[in-house]
Amino acid sequence: MATSKQQAKDKFDWANKGPAFVIQKHDATNLHYDFRIEVNGVLKSWVVPKGPSTDPSEQRLAIPTDDHKLNYADFEGTIPDEEYGGGTVMVWDRGSYRNLKSESDSNEGKSVEQQIDDGHITIWLEGEKLTGGYALTRTDMGDDERWLLVKMDDDKADARRNPVSTEAESVKSDRSLADIKKQE
Which residues are bridge partners to 34 per DSSP? Predict the structure, then answer.
């Protein structure tokens, strides 16, 4: 019998090349993006207020938030206002990722979990909107823990492109946030 982790993974044919990542556009108290990566059977999550960039010169604030179950990666809809995270959620981007530090001889194969503990994560995204290397770096710890999400300077970097503004629809349903809210 398949484990719940395997059942969740089987649903995500879009993440068949490795662990899953998803970026959900979330219109809650404030519009933001939830950047989530699969680590040890859960989605490690950061709130990115301005959304991800494809420009290596732009640093985006990333605030850690609660881990989510793997099956949440496919959620798109409206959470009632009285519930935690109330608001409309869209699957803005999704795909798989590779751990770049496991591929580097100089870093002796650090797991993503070890990188989180160390405060510096480097991964390669293979998404429908975002592709290439991204780094998450912790800048503050404690109750006000903060990270920065930065596009690495590789052949997928593009300072002219702004997918947060120009690619606003869901990769799951091709709907806008307003359409999702109306239809839920």
Answer: 24, 47
In which domain, by residue range, is 25 found? 4-171
Tell me if 177 is assigned to some domain.
Answer: no
How does DSSP assign 2-55, residue by residue?
A: --HHHHHHHH-GGGTTSSEEEEEEEESSSEEEEEEEEETTEEEEEEETT---S-
- Model pTM score: 0.89
Helix (H, G, I), strand (E, B) or coil at 92: strand
| pLDDT in 10s for each residue of the chain, 184 residues | 444 444 444 455 655 678 999 999 999 989 999 999 999 999 999 999 999 999 999 999 999 999 999 999 999 999 988 887 889 999 999 999 999 987 655 556 799 999 999 999 999 999 999 999 999 999 988 889 999 999 999 999 999 999 999 999 999 999 999 999 998 7
Q: Where are the alpha helices (DSSP H) in 66-133?
A: 112-118
Q: Considering all CA atoms of the chain, what is the largest pairwise distance in Å, rounded to the nearest integer? A: 51
Strand pairing class (131-140; 120-127): antiparallel
Q: For the chain, what is the domain count?
A: 1
Answer yes or no: is 50 within a domain.
Answer: yes
